[in-house]
Amino acid sequence: MSSENSVFDRIRVVLVEPKGPRNVGSTARAMKNFGLRDLRLLGKSWLEHDECREMGVGAHDVLESATVVSTFDDAVSDCSFLVGTTARERHRRPTATPRAAAPRILQEAGRGKVALLFGREDFGLFAEELTRCQMVISAETSAHRTSLNLSQAVMVVAYELFQAAPELSVSASTALGSVADDETLQRLYGELIACCENTGYLHDGSRQAIEGSMARLLRTAPIQTRDTRHIFGLVRRIQKLIDGRALLPRPRDEAASTPDEEGPS
Asked: pLDDT band for position 92 (50/70/90)?
């Protein structure tokens, strides 16, 4: 069995603020076992620590090519599908097992980059980080001990992806249309919230509920880039009307306009 499929190069493992070097090294080894190569660390770099190199024996190439970033945005901005991991169902998000989720993750990797997010050993991923994810997964464990060691969690997910890959024979493709990355969705979210504020729809009493709804709306499933252009265009037209910089067009003018005129900038 081989996992040398191009989609594996489009799956990134992101460790969010790992607490020590041993788990980082063990994660690199687990990734190498199952064909994953792209490792990104959010927070402190443990890559040159002796214990990291010791635990990552056989996977030094993964460690040497790993990237260290300081913000969540830097870790995932170029990814179009974010997968959060958690030890339990949280924040009104349904969870899937790694085995059930693996085919979907591989399919999305065929369309764009995927980020597998693994949280802090003590707190996991924060609510606002899980909100950014299109999918949340959780491994089934004994009720006597529900949480996994960080590198063990990475290994479980990597193993299920490795097992699912030969059956799917997924390859990188844009046949279904290119998908908006996280950076674009964050900008779109910001403009949607600003539009809600400027129209008076959003106020202090409704802010939390509306912001949550907009975040979930944009993260329910991947959005094609051509669809984001339409939403950007609508939001910006509404803003121009509010500012008095645009007139409502006559029907024939509206039909003649092109929605791509006001896309992401």
From this structure: low
